[in-house]
């Protein structure tokens, strides 16, 4: 009864409406299922593409590391040899420096030895106790240089301030006892100094004054020796030490390292330009089949979905134009259609319009 007023239709028209509604429902269900299928395919494709990319990245990284590791091992061996050669050169130079220092200071050292022998002889002749011939005695009683005077002040502070204070701090006694302890310890150092002073500055004064020139010469010689040592150690000219063989080997090893670096860079460049692309092509060719199959299924699903949506559109327009416009949206349900079919089958209604009116009255 297409194109006519459906309200005058009969039970056959209701069957047509029922079929159209069922077809519309079926299309809606198919569209929903196809959408789910399409989404699942999209996720599968995305997952496979991600897996393909990860496989390529991991393989490329592994192959690159394999290429570089060979150069790194070779580089490590040469660097170890270079380090050892430099250490050997440093040892050889140190020996040369020590020999040069010994050679250039030997006369001065011998002179100081002779002067010390003279001092010991004079002390022996003057009856000076041999243990007075030491640096501490000269610092305590005959300080000459600024360094010796500074050491004397430090020793004095240690004897009358630091050590007594530390001893008192470690003693858990009545305060008066600690004060007495401080005084006693400081006094011991003062008395010891005075006793030494009596011998060094009074009883043996002539001996010390007689050896003043020798001691002054020894101090000057020691300063001269230090200057010579500093000068030799600062000297950058290594030719006199016979280090040419070491320098030649170091230069050769450094050149080998430069060559390895250049070869390594070339290998990396070749890998990035060619090998990397070959690896990507190899893995892609191996795994792309599954992705292409999924994309084909996705494309087929998209075509089918489009067809179903067009069918749904057509049937929806048909239902809306031929049926809904006449009998109302509220009556366009399979339940109401079945009720109308019962009314027409029982003879209680002659047309669809009569059946609608009866349903309205019943409701």
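^ structure tokens above, recovered residues below v
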């Amino acid at each position: 009864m297409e194109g006519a007023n459906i309200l005058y239709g009969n039970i056959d028209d209701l069957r047509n409406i029922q079929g159209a509604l069922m077809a519309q429902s079926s299309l809606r269900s198919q569209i929903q299922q196809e959408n789910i299928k399409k989404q699942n395919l999209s996720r599968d494709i995305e997952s496979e593409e991600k897996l393909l990319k990860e496989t390529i990245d991991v393989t490329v990284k592994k192959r690159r590391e394999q290429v570089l590791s060979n150069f790194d091992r070779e580089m490590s061996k040469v660097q170890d040899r270079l380090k050892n050669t430099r250490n050997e050169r440093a040892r050889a130079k140190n020996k040369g420096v020590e020999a040069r220092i010994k050679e250039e200071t030997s006369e001065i050292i011998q002179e100081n030895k002779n002067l010390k022998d003279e001092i010991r002889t004079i002390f022996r002749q003057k009856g000076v106790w041999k243990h007075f011939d030491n640096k501490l005695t000269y610092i305590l009683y005959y300080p000459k240089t600024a360094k010796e005077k500074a050491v004397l002040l430090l020793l004095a502070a240690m004897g009358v301030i630091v050590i007594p204070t530390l001893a008192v701090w470690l003693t858990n006694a009545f305060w008066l006892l600690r004060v007495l302890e401080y005084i006693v310890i400081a006094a011991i150092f003062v008395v010891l100094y005075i006793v030494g002073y009596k011998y060094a500055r009074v009883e043996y004064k002539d001996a010390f004054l007689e050896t003043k020139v020798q001691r002054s010469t020894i101090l000057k010689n020691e300063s001269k020796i230090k200057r010579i040592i500093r000068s030799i150690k600062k000297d950058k000219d290594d030719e006199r030490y016979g280090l040419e063989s070491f320098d030649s080997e170091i230069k050769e090893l450094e050149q080998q390292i430069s060559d390895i670096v250049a070869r390594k860079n070339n290998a990396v460049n070749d890998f990035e330009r060619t090998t990397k692309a070959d690896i990507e092509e190899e893995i892609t060719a191996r795994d792309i089949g599954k992705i292409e199959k999924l994309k084909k299924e996705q494309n087929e699903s998209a075509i089918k979905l489009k067809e179903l949506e067009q069918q749904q559109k057509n049937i929806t327009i048909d239902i809306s134009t031929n049926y809904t416009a006449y009998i109302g949206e509220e009556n366009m349900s399979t339940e109401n259609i079945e009720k109308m079919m019962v009314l027409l089958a029982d003879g209680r209604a002659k047309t669809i319009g009569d059946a609608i009116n009866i349903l309205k009255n019943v409701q």
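DSSP finds nine helices and no strands in the chain.
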